[in-house]
Design a protein that fits this description.
Radius of gyration: 17 Å
Order of helices and strands: EEHHEEEHEEEHH
Strand content: 15-25%
Number of strands: 8
Shape: globular
Strand order of the largest sheet: 5-4-3-8-7-6
Largest sheet: 6 strands, antiparallel
Helix content: 25-40%
Distance between the termini: 19 Å
C-alpha cells in the first residue's frame, strides 16, 4: 500500500499482508476470549494491535447511549503519544446533526482525506484534541436495522490513500468488535462463538 505523507516528509511505501494480519487478529480474538473474562481489557488490546499495525493516531469506539437521545459515548479508545484520551466523553447531537451522521453511516463507510475527498463533504469526525485530522475512516457498528455505534480509525498529520483491501480488513475487524462488545452482557457463550466464527469466515476476502 502507499502512504502519502504531508509536504516536507518522505513518501513511505509499505507493503502489508492484510490476509495474514487478519488471520492473526482472528486468532488473537479467540485466544483473548478463552484466556480472560475481562472483555474490556481484551478489546483495548485488540484495538492497540490494529493501531500499531497501521500507525493510526487514534482508534476509538463510540457507542449509542440508550437512555440519552442522539448521544454517542467514547467507550473504548487507544491513542498515540501526546494525544488526549477522551475515553468516557459523551456528545449529544442536535436532531439535524444526528440524522446526518446516521445517513452517512448508512453508506457503510465514511472516508475523510483533507485534500483528496470532495471539499463539500463535511468532516463528521469529532475533535480528538490531536491536532488536524488529515485522514480518517469511520465505520458503523450494529446491523442494517440497528445502529449501535461507530469505530474511528484516524491519522493525524499524515495523508493516507485508503486501499479497498485495508478497508475490508477494518470493516471485518469492526464487525468482530461489535459482536465481541455484545458478548459483555450475553450469557449464551455457544451462540456468541457461532456468530463470531461466522463473521470471521464470511467477511474477509469477500469479493
Amino acid at each position: 500500500s502507499l502512504q502519502y505523507m504531508n509536504e516536507g516528509l518522505d513518501v513511505n511505501i509499505v507493503e502489508k499482508d492484510y490476509e495474514a494480519f487478519y488471520n492473526e487478529i482472528s486468532k488473537m480474538t479467540f485466544r483473548l476470549m478463552e484466556d480472560t473474562t475481562d472483555a474490556d481489557s481484551s478489546i483495548q488490546l485488540l484495538m492497540k494491535h490494529i493501531m500499531d499495525y497501521f500507525g493510526f493516531a487514534v482508534v476509538a469506539t463510540l457507542l449509542v447511549v440508550p437512555d440519552k437521545p442522539r448521544t454517542l459515548k467514547t467507550v473504548y479508545t487507544v491513542v498515540g503519544e501526546g494525544i488526549f484520551n477522551n475515553k468516557d466523553h459523551e456528545t449529544q447531537y442536535t436532531e439535524e446533526r444526528w440524522n446526518y451522521i446516521k445517513k452517512v453511516m448508512e453508506r457503510g463507510r465514511y472516508m475523510f482525506c483533507s485534500d483528496l475527498d470532495n471539499p463539500e463533504c463535511e468532516n463528521i469526525f469529532p475533535d480528538y484534541d490531536a491536532g488536524e485530522i488529515v485522514s480518517g475512516l469511520r465505520l458503523p457498528m450494529g446491523n442494517k436495522t440497528y445502529f449501535s455505534g461507530i469505530t474511528d480509525f484516524v491519522y493525524v498529520g499524515k495523508e493516507h490513500r485508503w486501499e479497498e483491501r485495508e478497508i475490508r480488513l477494518l470493516e471485518s475487524f469492526t464487525r468482530i468488535l461489535s459482536v465481541y462488545i455484545s458478548r459483555i452482557n450475553t450469557f449464551d457463550e455457544s451462540a456468541y462463538l457461532a456468530k463470531l466464527m461466522k463473521e470471521r469466515d464470511s467477511i474477509w476476502l469477500r469479493k
